[in-house]
């Protein structure tokens, strides 16, 4: 017995339906029932040769243009590509050229991301960049329409597209829930009949190894559009009570300068607790995976109704707020691994108006993940100016 959708061959993961007198797969039951050895019904989605172009508010930088050319070259060689770009380097803009080329050749393009919120954001950005295309979002609570010129969906929704995409772009592949999820990987594999483009600011070791073996082309972009280096965090290791005093001092200094802060703590309980006590000194609230009205809290923070937002790793990715600083309490906690620390620090200095800023890591001991995070940021900063020089040389 084998499940044609998820590749499951494990006998215990099939259940018997006495009415139909057939076995069905339990492993991928979340995507609807499918019987053992049942062929996947081919689905046809419309394709046509478009004549689209994309428009950006700011033109691509030299470094971005070079990366775009490198992507194109590798695609022509028939390679899957990993785009390894620093947080805020503009990786979404890098794939627009590929989208345009594939669609204009009459091919089907999909863009898959782990989180629903980001699906909606990317849809907005793509619809703006490609005004002549029908760009659709397919995610939880939003799947009445599943076909359009360009499909933006969550990784989970890829099961609707067996053998459909000539180009499948996958963002945040190192993030929950895609990372290490065999089921989602198989489904993504089935959805793509052509080439893949992976995007990440923090690719995991397995992927980098694949690249070093030459199974995957790698295109790097560490230069942010404004040209400033990534913020290197200040690390202070000390007792917990002193961590709190130091963070309050940091927050007071920021408040005086009119700078908002995202304060990361390891657990939901701590987020609530710290938000409650810091409320005596600052306009402050908390946001965790359990919070209701997340969108409203973020909108209020954007509108500067708070000096401070206490949060967990739930906000480590995807959020862009102009001119914020970040601090991490108990940065030696197990939830803060190398990737999540890089993502957290990547929230700082993203806008052209405020390209610099501060990041503070407070911990009792400096963990390997903290060391690796700093090393990775330094390495990206060392590579970035070279990307700029190469570009200038190419243009000269
Ligand atoms: Zn299955």
Could you explain how this protein is built, in words?
With 396 residues, the protein is an alpha/beta fold. The protein starts with 13 loop residues before the first strand and ends with a helix. Helix 1 (62-76) crosses helix 11 (368-395) and helix 10 (338-345) crosses helix 11. Strand 14 (325-328), helix 10 (338-345) and strand 15 form a beta-alpha-beta unit. The protein contains 11 helices and 15 strands. The mean pLDDT is 93. It has 3 domains: 1-41, no CATH class; 62-221, P-loop containing nucleotide triphosphate hydrolases (Rossmann fold), CATH 3.40.50.300; 234-291 and 301-368, P-loop containing nucleotide triphosphate hydrolases (Rossmann fold), CATH 3.40.50.300. The protein has helices at 62-76, 91-94, 96-104, 116-129, 182-191, 205-212, 240-256, 268-278, 294-302, 338-345, 368-395; strands at 14-17, 22-25, 81-85, 109-113, 135-138, 150-154, 165-171, 192-200, 217-221, 234-237, 261-264, 284-287, 308-311, 325-328, 359-363. The strands form 3 sheets. It has a 7-stranded parallel β-sheet. Bound molecules: zinc ion (ZN). Residues 3, 5-6, 8, 25, 27-28, 34 line the site of zinc ion (ZN).
């Amino acid at each position: 017995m084998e499940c044609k959708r998820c590749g499951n061959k494990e006998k215990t993961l099939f259940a018997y339906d006495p009415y139909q007198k057939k076995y069905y797969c339990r492993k991928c039951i979340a995507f609807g029932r499918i019987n053992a050895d049942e062929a996947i019904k081919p689905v046809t989605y419309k394709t046509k040769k478009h004549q689209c172009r994309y428009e950006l508010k700011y033109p691509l930088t030299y470094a971005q243009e070079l990366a775009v050319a490198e992507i194109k070259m590798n695609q022509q060689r028939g390679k899957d590509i990993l785009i390894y770009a620093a947080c805020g380097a503009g990786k979404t803009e890098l794939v627009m050229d590929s989208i345009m080329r594939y669609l204009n050749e009459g091919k089907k393009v999909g863009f898959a991301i782990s989180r629903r919120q980001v699906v909606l954001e990317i849809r907005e950005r793509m619809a703006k960049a490609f005004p002549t295309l029908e760009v659709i979002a397919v995610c939880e609570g939003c799947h009445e329409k599943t076909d359009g010129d360009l499909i933006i969906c969550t990784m989970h929704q890829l099961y609707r597209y067996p053998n459909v995409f000539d180009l499948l772009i996958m963002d945040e592949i190192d993030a929950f829930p895609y990372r290490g999820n065999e089921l989602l990987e198989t489904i993504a594999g089935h959805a793509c009949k052509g080439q893949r483009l992976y995007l990440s600011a923090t690719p995991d070791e397995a992927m980098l190894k694949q690249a070093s073996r030459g199974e995957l082309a790698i295109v790097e972009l560490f230069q942010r559009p404004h040209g400033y280096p990534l913020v290197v965090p200040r690390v202070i290791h000390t007792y917990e009570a002193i961590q709190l005093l130091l963070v309050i001092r940091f927050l007071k200094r920021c408040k005086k300068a009119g700078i908002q802060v995202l304060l990361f703590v390891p657990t939901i309980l701590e987020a609530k607790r710290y938000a409650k006590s810091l409320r005596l000194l600052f306009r402050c609230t908390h946001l965790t995976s359990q919070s209701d009205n997340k969108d409203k809290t973020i909108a209020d923070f954007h509108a500067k109704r708070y000096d401070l937002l206490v949060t967990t790793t739930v906000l480590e990715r995807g959020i862009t707020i102009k001119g914020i600083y970040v601090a991490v309490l108990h940065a030696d906690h197990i939830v803060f691994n190398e990737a999540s620390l890089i993502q957290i620090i990547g929230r700082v200095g993203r806008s052209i108006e405020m390209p610099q800023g501060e990041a503070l890591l407070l911990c009792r001991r400096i963990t390997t993940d903290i060391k690796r995070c700093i090393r990775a940021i330094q390495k990206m900063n060392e590579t970035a100016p070279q990307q700029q020089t190469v570009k200038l040389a190419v243009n000269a």
